[in-house]
Amino acid sequence: MLLHPNLRTRSSRALFAAAALCLAITGCTVGPNYQRPAVPPPPAAFKELPPPNPPNGSWKPAAPADTALRGKWWEIYQDAQLNALEEKVTVSNQTLKAQTEQYLQAREQIRVARSNYYPTLSAGPSVSRQKSSANEPSAVRGLTYSSYGIQGQVSWEPDLWGQIRRTVEQTRANAQASAADLANVELSLRSELALDYFEMRGLDTQKRLLDNTVSADTDYLDLTQVRFKGGVATDVDVAQAQTQLESVRAQDIDVGVARAQFEHAIATLIGTPASSFSLQFAPLDLPLPNVPSGVPSELLERRPDIAGAERRADAANAQIGIAISAYYPNVQIGGSGGFQSDNAGTWIQGPSSLWSLGGSAIELLFDAGRRHAITDQAREAYEMQSATYRQSVLNAFQEVEDNLAALRILDDESITQNRAVDSARRSLQISTSRYKGGVTTYLEVLTAQTTQLTNERTQADITTRQFASSVQLIKALGGGWDTTQLPKF
Question: How many domains does the chain have?
């Protein structure tokens, strides 16, 4: 079928108009598409994991079925008081609330960026009464008249070069980074609470030990005084026993300073005034739980700080595209329409209508290298964020290995220290028997007492450090978080 030349011309124009409209709507997206920065390949297993069945060891990794932390990680310690405190962090901690609001701000920025996809529309009436100058060289010279108008304006900047798309991409990545920051702050606060709690309970263990030692040293002083009155001991023995007792009492009192500080820190973490908060005396007699470490390749997906660094690299990459779009023309389409009359009765009528439609395309021809510098700056910012991401991965592996090593070594140290405590207790028993039998002076007993107390306090300190290292290991592993919890926008 042959078309009339006028019809072919009209068809060509229609196709051209449709193509132009398609280009205006879809455009193209300039700048590099994001690829996650490469990192060193993770090892098959963590280096510092202990052997499957460490000889005489009390700590070992979790069973294969428990390959990752889940949900409320603090519940693995099976401590009801800790569980109750951790539940208050989300509700009352002001630092967490501030970070939450920061995330919500970042989320709203996505809506702001997306709004630029659409035209802006405004409309409104106008009414005025005017008097022109009698000397004005115009047709309304010296006249007083009214003006009634109602107009609407529409303006649209089509995203031809992808500037808006890159901006949305950037704000989305920034919002996800803020969500990862929120998760990281929550993890830090919860782990800090657990650390302070176990440190406080470790001090309660120290206090129980010192209380028992004060009681035992009081009995030794009474025994020495009885022996002194019977002429068997000397006043030097009494003075040494008295000195030992008062020294331990001073240590017992001193523990209270650090305990009060940890208690106050816990109050702040759960959003409670320190002066109205207290925790009951509770020595650290819990069994040390097994912490599931998983495999190294999962670590990149389980650390919120790593996820935040990676999302910021994505945002920095999008900024390159935004910078490159400045090299292309700035196209705007606009129009207006409405009614205007000098008489209210003919205000909204056909003859009073008016309209205009137009567009512009402006290309910046010279800027003394400004766009080039901004683009280079964006590329360098991306390289910086990529390096930060890679470093955060390396730091994560170091933190996991550090705490795995700490737990493994502390377990060996605890076994050895337990033997030292047993030997010290046996030594004190022997020295006490020798002293009661008149074979030796009180100085030998005093030395044995000091040795036993030192070793028992070291043993209690090792236990506290084991719990602290387990909490830090959980934090280093991400506390059960993973990238699937990042919001999708």
Answer: 1
